[in-house]
Write a structure and sequence with these properties.
- The chain is mainly alpha-helical and about 150 residues long.
- It contains five helices and two strands.
- The radius of gyration is 21 Å and the shape is flat.
- The model has no long low-confidence stretch (mean pLDDT about 95).
């Protein structure tokens, strides 16, 4: 089941969904927490621009061509987001196995993604790398708001 956003306008629909689940005879885990919007496409686009900026600058600095957008993305996610345990149930045997996978930015909310981007920006600055930040992007607008 996907996330549900609970508010006054959809309470009847949510009660119906919950009743259907209860009547199925199965048990469910219900988690209620404050709704936060998922990271935006704009934030995702900026992170990919930065991965590419970093890869190109490090390659130029070291006079190599080893670093790619994807390799930088993996390294930064590993450094700043880490891993989460993921459960997999084998469709044939029913056996459950657990692995550790890098946390995906698609699972972050806007605030967590902003923090991730800020960590990348600070790290890049400390490493002498320059990142493009378009004036019209969400990240820059939030930075500008904090200065006011």
């Amino acid at each position: 089941m996907d996330d549900l956003c609970l508010h006054q306008s959809n309470i009847k629909t949510i009660i119906k969904v919950l009743m259907d689940l209860v009547l199925s005879g199965k048990r469910y885990r219900l988690v209620i927490k404050i709704w936060k919007d998922k990271r935006s496409i704009d934030q995702n686009s900026l992170s990919h621009m930065w991965y590419d900026d970093i890869a190109k600058q490090v390659n130029d600095k070291l006079k190599i061509s080893s670093f790619t957008l994807e390799s930088v993305k993996k390294d930064l996610k590993e450094m700043f987001l880490g891993y989460e345990e993921v459960e997999h149930t084998n469709v044939i045997t029913g056996k459950k196995t657990y692995t550790h996978e890098l946390i995906k930015t698609s699972g972050l909310d806007k605030g967590d993604m902003h923090i991730y981007l800020k960590k990348i920006e600070v790290w890049a600055y400390q490493e002498g790398l320059r990142l493009r930040i378009p004036n019209e992007c969400e990240y820059q607008k939030l930075k500008d708001e904090q200065v006011k």
